[in-house]
Amino acid sequence: MKINMSFPATGCQKLIDIADELKVRPFYEKRMGQEVEADTLGDEFKGYVMRITGGNDKQGFPMKQGVLTNGRVRLLLAKGHSCYRPRRDGERKRKSVRGCIVDGNLAVLSMAIVKKGEAEIPGLTDNTIPRRLGPKRASKIRKLFNLTKEDDVCQYVIKRPLPLKDGKKQKFAAPKVQRLVTPVMLQRKRHRLALKRRRGEKNRLAAAEFAKILAQRQKEAKEAKELKRKRSASLRESKRSVSSQ
After folding, report:
1. Integer Cα distance of 226 and 220 in angstroms
2. Would you say residue 245 has pLDDT above 80?
3. Cα–Cα distance between 112 and 2 in angstroms, integer?
């Protein structure tokens, strides 16, 4: 079985091949997310504690968190589920996945170092890979450099050097700072609020005009109805007078 180890503190990862099954047997019947001591892997791993993050079986099917079995099952997966990427909106598909319990049928077991031991592991804990990209959001840049609201965040953006061309000056690529409060943004916000106020005022005037017209129409309808009633009453009175003569 191969074990893919990662150390988040340095950003390194290393794949080791373990032929002796006795060394990996303590990981059997453990679930994804559990923390296991790695002393059985060798003397250099003494004191290390690792968390099981996943794995693949010999046919390439991945482990899925929450499937409490050590075998393979077929699940109907949709958008938002792990081990599946929909190609169309609303698409669902029945896919084969392996349960979250470790057994001997795995080809690769992925683990992350939670606690570092006494000895250094070559290529994993003795080297540090710098992050390629820095923070992009204004609040996160302020938090990283402990800035105040008065400091210019754009001066502290972490730039990435571009490949150097022959005879050309070194160029850098910097991300656009997100959620940055600028005078232009405040002006646009004021404009949006002004438009909203104008719409509200226009709607209030239109509602008042409509209520005025509606009251006028109701008054006219009431007067017409009253006039019709008077005419019908006078007509009945005239007919009654004619019949009595």
Report:
1. 10
2. no
3. 14
Query: At residue 240, what is the residue type?
Result: R
Cα separation of 63 and 72, whole Å?
Answer: 9
Token digits of residue 167: 């005879």
Closest CA to 27 of 76, 70, 62, 81: 70
pLDDT band (50, 70, 90) for residue 91? very high
pLDDT in tens, 149-187: 889 999 999 998 899 888 889 999 999 999 999 999 999
Residue reference for tokens 């820095």: 134
Structure tokens given for 123: 């290529």
Please, which residues have CB within 8 angstroms of residue 35's CB and are 6 or more apart in sequence? 49, 50, 51, 114
As a whole number of angstroms, the distance between CA 167 and CA 183 comes to 40
Residue labelled with tokens 């997310």: 33
**Which tokens hold the place of 36?**
């296991």
Q: What share of the chain is helix, strand, coil (3-state, %, to 5)?
A: 35, 25, 40
Contact indicator for 159, 175 with CB cutoff of 8 Å? no
Termini Cα distance of the chain: 122
pTM of the model: 0.65
In the Cβ-directed half-sphere of 153, how many Cα atoms lie within 13 Å? 21
Structure tokens at 144: 């990283």
